Amino acid sequence: MTLDLHSHKTQLVATAFAASAVTLSLFSAYQQHVKRQKRRTLDQDILRSLSDPGTLKASRRGPDHDIHEVTVGGSSTPYRVSLEYDEELVREQLARNYAFFGEEGMAKIRKGTVVVIGCGGVGSWAAVMLARSGVAKIRLVDFDQVTLSSLNRHATAGLSDVGTPKVKCIERALKEITRVVEIDARIDIWRKESGGDLLEGADWVIDAIDNITTKVDLLKYCHDHDIKIFSSMGAGAKCDPTRIQISDISYTMYDPLARSVRRRLRLAGVSSGIPVVYSTEVPGEVKLLPLPEEEFKKGNVKELGVFDDFRVRILPVLGPLPAIFGLHIATFILCELAGKPIHNPLPVKGRKKFNERLARDLQKREEKFLGHQINKLPLDDDDLGLVFDDLYRGRSALPPHPVPERPALVRWDPSQPLSLTNCVAFEIADAERHLKECLLEKKRPEDVWGEEVAEVVRRRTEEARKIVEWVM
């Protein structure tokens, strides 16, 4: 069939198509013109108000929610600016989020209520990203004030905020970012006796508390009352962002704070069901900051460590790490609110299985060495993963230290008990040789493997001792 371009019918169809295209382009151009005009009017309104605050006060109209406070430069005086911020501008501000979550997902996010307990380095970053992403209501709870030392990690605090409540500092910043979020700033501390008041209406609660007793009480309370809560573990004394994980509290490993929280929750009858962000990194060459004499007079200073009443301010903290923790939390909660949940990451689950295999193989070697069956190793699966991944860097102790095809762990010194400081990583064939010659035939490990290997093991043993001081 051939198309007759001179046909009257064909010409009518072509004309109709052309008219439709012109109409569509004109309509699109008009929409773009309206958007540009609104932006231009908005910019002019702000600039005019900033240049003449007196005029603004004289011409102010409408209720308070039509007035927006803007701070310019280093000025401590906020300018109140009247803004017409309709739904079209809101959707443009959240355009990237709409593109990712879709209409249904964003509708859920914009109806969401999140309570942030603890508004320091972790909580402040979580709050900022939740507000930027369109969460409707955010309640900020913290009794503390911004200090100079807060400025290396806090999301919104500046020099002018030192001495002011953290929640008010965040509230001011969020109101300059978005007009679609309702901020409820509470200068308060969460207590289990009256905890329900601060958590009322929450779709999600963020636990970014430093004090371990309060942290465990909050997690237990939310678990018992079916309130969804996400908890932050220890970001202090860490520097490796690749070790940061999201998992259930029951899957955490190596993190001193997570270990202590997990143990206390188990005693309280809670073994799982709480998502957390934590780091598998073992603290390196770091020490607690010195305490002034008056702190020692308050009581047992051990209560200020990671094992009891944890206070992050006495730990070295690299600023980006709390920020990354907070961003992990915000991302997880946004996906949950939108109905696109993040499941436990595969690397954690896969590593668990790997550590379990290391444990099974090591137990068989121990039974051969001891000459009888044993019910349980003195090291758990996480400890064995720490030996292989952190102490021996996932490599064999034998030069040139290759990555083993079949990794294996074995007791190093037969005269000493199996422990973190007396366990070495080998290829499986080398581990079996060590079992035969060193453990069963009682040869000195230095004579079997040489002084170079013995020196490597001594260095790793010293590292293990430092880790035991931190983690155990």
How is this structure best described in words?
- The chain has about 475 residues and is an alpha/beta fold.
- The protein contains 16 helices and 11 strands.
- It has helices at about 10-50, 55-60, 85-95, 95-110, 120-130, 165-175, 195-200, 210-225, 255-265, 295, 320-340, 345-370, 380-390, 430-440, 445-450, 450-470; strands at about 65-70, 80, 115, 135-140, 180-185, 205, 230, 245-250, 275-280, 405-410, 425.
- The strands form 3 sheets. Strands 5-4-3-6-7-9-8 form a 7-stranded mixed beta sheet, with helices on both faces.
- Helix 4 (about 95-110) crosses helix 11 and helix 5 packs across helix 11.
- Residues about 55-65 and about 300-315 have low confidence and may be disordered.
User: How many helical elements?
Assistant: 16
In total, how many beta strands? 11
Largest sheet: 7 strands, mixed
Radius of gyration: 30 Å
What is the oligomer described by this structure? single chain
Cα-to-Cα separation, first versus last residue = 84 Å
* Uncertain parts: 53-65, 301-313
Secondary structure category: alpha/beta
Task: Please state roughly what percent of the residues sit in beta strands, choosing from under 5%, 5-15%, 15-25%, 25-35%, 35-45% or over 45%.
Answer: 5-15%
Q: What is the helix/strand order?
A: HHEEHHEHEHEHEHEEHEHHHHEEHHH
- Give average pLDDT, whole number: 83
Could you give a short description of this structure?
With 472 residues, this protein is an alpha/beta fold. 48% of the residues lie in helices and 11% in strands.
Reconstruct the topology from this structure.
Elements: H1 8-51, H2 53-59, E1 67-70, E2 79-82, H3 87-93, H4 95-109, E3 113-117, H5 121-132, E4 137-141, H6 166-177, E5 182-186, H7 195-199, E6 204-207, H8 212-224, E7 229-232, E8 244-248, H9 256-267, E9 275-279, H10 293-297, H11 320-338, H12 346-370, H13 381-391, E10 407-411, E11 423-427, H14 428-440, H15 445-449, H16 451-471
